[in-house]
Amino acid sequence: MKYLSWEIQLPEECGGKEEAVARADAYLLDWGEEGTKKVRPAVVICPGGGYRHLSPREGEPIAMQYLSMGFHAFVLRYSIAPARFPTALWQLALLVARIRERSREWLADPERIVVSGFSAGGHLACSLGAFWNRELVWGPLGLRAEQIRPAAMLLSYPVITSGPFCHSGSFENLLGEEAQDKEKRHLVSLEHQVGPHTPRTFVWHTAADASVPVQNSLLLAQALAKSGVSVELHIYPEGCHGLSLATEDTSSGKENMIEPRCQSWIKLAGEWLADV
């Protein structure tokens, strides 16, 4: 395995500031090995944290799981508050474009780049699936829509709606002083923005989630199905928010972060990813 890490600086057109510098960590299988010709799919991981911080439990431990499935894994440490929408979305788009640009060197399949997000990171990943074909994303980056298009989305207990079932803190951090602007809130309420252009999607959530209500995933799945987008949805009856792998390894010593019934999600995701 080869490990790489670099900063993602936005162009001046995006108002590149110090708080708008992200970091990408890449875990590449078979990178540069003599005689290796196997081209692998890639997963870009967006940890959660309410656009206020980034959860380490939803970064490298998840990357290790995808590596074991034969995927290259990239963890995006995107900008959080006080950075505002669409700063993190631009950073994710730039990372996807770079993977495509370096695909021959990294032995990555440019047509099989998946975005995987947790909680607010799920909102970020889903935002790329919703907005990749809009000029507000690719235009300021000097890219084409096709360069930033994800092949699929894998979303874990995602923040989706800014409506009655919203996680208010995520939208306050994402929009700042515009958090009560109706047009802005509608724009980032993703059940209204996905459509036939959105890639196939895997979603899981728990019905007992008291932080990001399960209705977020239900609203998204309903909108995707209405648009004819392939969606696989798993709702577990028990489990708090932010479970990550729901195992002892990602529990941070908290018993409520260990939920045996939810541990199957990563296996189910792996089976789903086999068809991407």
Structure characterization notes:
The protein is an alpha/beta fold and 276 residues long. The protein is 30% helix and 21% strand. It has ten helices and eight strands. The chain has an eight-stranded mixed sheet with strand order 1-2-4-3-5-6-7-8, sandwiched between helices. Strand 7, helix 9 and strand 8 form a beta-alpha-beta unit. The chain is globular and about 45 Å long. The mean pLDDT is 95.
Short summary:
This protein is an alpha/beta fold and 276 residues long. The chain contains ten helices and eight strands. An eight-stranded mixed beta sheet has the order 1-2-4-3-5-6-7-8, with helices on both faces.
- Quaternary: single chain
Structural class: alpha/beta
Give the overall shape, derived from the CA principal axes. Answer: globular
**Helix count, DSSP H or I runs of 4 or more residues:** 10
Strand content: 15-25%
Number of strands: 8
Order of helices and strands: EEEHEHHEHHHEHHEHEH
Q: Describe the sheet with the most strands.
A: 8 strands, mixed
List the uncertain runs: none
